[in-house]
User: Fold this.
Amino acid sequence: MSGPTTSPKDGAAAARSGGTDATALDADALRRRVADLLTTHDPATTDRLDFLRARFDAGLAWIHFPEGLGGLGAPRALQQVVDQALEAGGAPDNAPRRIGIGLGMAAPTLLRHGTDAQRRRFLRPLWTGEEVWCQLFSEPGAGSDLAALATRATRDGEGDGWIVDGQKVWTSQAHLARWGILLARTDPDLPKHRGITYFVCDMTDPGVDVRPLRQITGEAEFNEVFLTGVRIPDTHRLGGVGEGWQVARTTLMNERVAIGGARVPRESGMIGLVADTWRRQPELRTHDLHQRLLKLWVDAEAARLTAERLGRQLALGQPGPEGSGMKLAFARLNQEISGLEVELLAEEGLGYDDWTLTRPELVDFTGRDAGYRYLRAKGNSIEGGTSEVLLNIIAERVLGLPPEPRTDKDAAWKDLPR
Amino acid sequence: MTTPAPPDLLYSETEDDLRAAVRSLLTDRGGPTAALAEAETGRPYDPDLWRSLATGMGTAGLLVPERLGGQGATAREAAVVLEELGRSVAAVPYLTSAVLAVRTLLGCDTARPEVAGPLAALADGTRVGALAVPLPTAPGGAPHGTVRGGAGLSGEITSVAGAAGADVLLVPADSGLYAVDATAPGVTVTPVTPLDLTRPLARVTLTGATATLLAEPARARTAVADALLTGAGLLASEQLGLAEWCLAETVRYTGGRHQFGRPVGSFQALKHRLAALWLDIVSARATARNAADALATGSPDTAVAVAVAQAHCGEVAVRAAQECVQLHGGIGMTWEHPAHLYLKRAKSDQIALGTPGRHRETLARLVDLPGPAG
Ligand SMILES: Cc1cc2nc3c(=O)[nH]c(=O)nc-3n(C[C@H](O)[C@H](O)[C@H](O)COP(=O)(O)OP(=O)(O)OC[C@H]3O[C@@H](n4cnc5c(N)ncnc54)[C@H](O)[C@@H]3O)c2cc1C
Assistant:
């Protein structure tokens, strides 16, 4: 195994002292760094994991992260320069779709709220994909109203750690995960948002029981997770005791960006698949389907341009409120387009590829056949915040409409009706 | 399916400044309230406002190169002006003169004085022009041959936007494109009562009208087609501005109006509708900016970008105006409240320069998604 090019310790020191002068890191400088990496670690002869570790240590993993933590403190907009140069050089990637929860949610939360030790311990194997992460948030009694969660964390005898008991549900990838980001209640006497603490849960702890939960597609992408006397050292707490909700907001904000904010070329995703079928099989066409297809094509192109615009704003460091809208738009589009596709396929649409219970390694919304896409897309308006809840958020936070009257915000959690 | 090079979908600083200047002018002149008063005068447009906007600020010449007497800007800047004009439903002949007529002239041989002369006059806003085609004409659908003749033109064109109040009419005829002075003998411009009170419509009747040839038939056809494409693409920005006003006004109103002991805007049924409208407007902005940028850069993707913007923004503006009326309750139904001006403009704009359905049919051809055979 090749040694790191920058030691994490040096990197952290550089990050504390202000890091690299970001203005010096233009696209050319980054391309040079990529070239250096490709020279010292020829992808053709270097083990995949060794290469990924070296890339992380060279600060080329996520360049907007600080030095020593896989980045260079460079503008996020330049990441695509790095990615393109690495791809052109035949470098392996970290299979980002396999580790979406780690990359999209755990990492930004660790960066923002983690201690130096936590960031150094967790970020590197997270990014390389050596350690998969899952999100232990939702519970049978707490979904949209996540802050109502009932999983308890109590100080263990010595006071140097925590004991966790409770049940989580809909936990995607828990069957693969080494770590879980966990929300647990540490003070039931406080109002619900204030008594929560955020932890990193070791999924190999003997008290963690992961059971597959089969979904409408036939597979079990998510799980039920039973937590019984799970021990979590206090060093695996993220943020202050009782501050879990604020920490969770970082995670949830990034979840929506991760789900909705991706850049897409024209006719990629679902619309491209149905357009291909349309072109290949003229005998399936009807006037009604034609009108609906054209409408959806326009909507998909409009959504693509909106995502493009959002991406530009993010790259310039002016994130717009558009992000929260993208997830909504894509959920609706995925559902309507896949529904149209099954209908277009007519006789073929009556079949389904395979109902076998599998526990997939990654989620591919556009994978498999039209029937699968149609069923899987139903989750798009539920996972990561339901469409109804997102509409509430847009109405109140973006448009500034007055909130609904609420009775649950200030009462002690233990007194709330359940 | 090829994806075009990434367009610039944001607003530049210059564009922001231009917007601020236009908005402040329109606000000073009384905004939508003034638009209602103006509509009731029966004049085709407010000449003072036009002078300030077109000549004073130089917006009439944005699309015209400096050497031809314009500002040498692009469709991107004109789009920003149109957003603001949509937001205030101002009755000024910007789309019809500074976009459609100007763009038609730019498609002719500008080295010829018969072209350059009227172009410079339209560009500095001292004269107003109109392209004499029916307002519903979609890009690619320009009717030719309804008007006949050479030096003396005869024929009739219905539903010409901005003809009333125009000084010069650009008339596509069987033998080419002509300039006709609106006051010349043999020219009758008969206003018709429009649904949209802020954009005059007229029937143009020519009986042996004296005309100046601007372009031979082939060139005329491309000039008109190009003008219609530009007009349709930029109309999307007007529709965007219009929709934005409707949303902002409705959010303001429902946030303050109390029923059942709470602001009506706190009811989730209304919140969800307004949030959904916001989302539509966010994507309308992306498509309108995309069309404006494609027109500005001469992108090979322009026809697709315009058709997408029109198919999308036409519907969004109508929905925004309809929601605005509905969520205002009774007051939204009154003549006094400006919501109806927006509804009427939105509904007319939906028909102008091709309905959304027509633009979708265009797309079917452009992106190879043909309908069933037969
Ligand atoms: C495929 C998939 C993967 C998932 N993966 C994970 C994961 O990895 N980790 C994790 O922690 N969670 C995960 N989830 C859980 C997901 O976040 C929740 O399902 C979601 O937040 C909704 O909660 P709920 O299921 O309890 O529904 P509920 O909150 O009970 O909602 C029921 C219905 O009521 C509506 N509703 C609720 N509140 C309101 C309101 N205030 N206004 C209007 N309507 C409202 C909802 O929109 C919904 O239609 C996953 C879910 C799915 C479908």
In short: Residues 287-315 of chain A form the longest helix (29 residues).
